[in-house]
Amino acid sequence: MTRSIILLTSAREVPFFEEFLLERNRELQILAAYNAEDLANAVEQTGGNTRLISFVTDIIVPRTLLSKLKLTPYNINRHLQNFPARMLIVLLSGKARTHMGAQPMK
């Protein structure tokens, strides 16, 4: 099964994240979501078998969408916007810590 990640962020951020993630896993499916409608469509497309990473966005993810996700979604806080590569390495390694700014969404 192909692993996937939904990036909930701005169009400006997506190319950086795509390049960074694909360098580490060429088979990863990356879906970009710029608004709530895009996010709902991406969750539906993956059947919820995806990781959601929300980065520097004001969009609040509804609980109904969060409940459809099979992998823990993360919100990366604004104060880490200068260190996205470091944060993604931590997230992808499975060692995310809330004190580093990546907070599981509940």
Topology:
Layout: E1 4-8, H1 14-24, E2 29-33, H2 36-46, E3 51-55, H3 63-66, E4 74-76, H4 84-92, E5 102-104
Parallel strand pairs: 1-2, 1-3, 3-4
Antiparallel strand pairs: 4-5
Give an overview of the whole structure.
The chain has 106 residues and is of the alpha/beta class. It has helices at 14-24, 36-46, 63-66, 84-92, and strands at 4-8, 29-33, 51-55, 74-76, 102-104. It has a single domain (4-104), classed as Rossmann fold, CATH 3.40.50. The chain contains 4 helices and 5 strands; from the N terminus they run βαβαβαβαβ. It has a 5-stranded mixed beta sheet with strand order 2-1-3-4-5, with helices on both faces. The radius of gyration is 12 Å and the shape is globular.
Low-pLDDT regions: 96-100
Strand content: 15-25%
Helical amount among residues, as a percent range?
A: 25-40%
CATH architecture: 3-Layer(aba) Sandwich
What does the radius of gyration come to? Answer: 12 Å
Which strand order spans the largest sheet, edge to edge or round the barrel? 2-1-3-4-5
What is the CATH domain class? Answer: Alpha Beta
The major beta sheet can be summarized as:
5 strands, mixed
Structural class: alpha/beta
Counting structural domains, the number is: 1
Please report the number of helical segments.
4
Instruction: Provide the CATH topology.
Output: Rossmann fold
In one word, what is the shape? globular
Let me know the average pLDDT. Answer: 80
Strand-and-helix sequence, N→C? Answer: EHEHEHEHE
What is the CA-CA span between the terminal residues? Answer: 26 Å
SS elements, strand count: 5
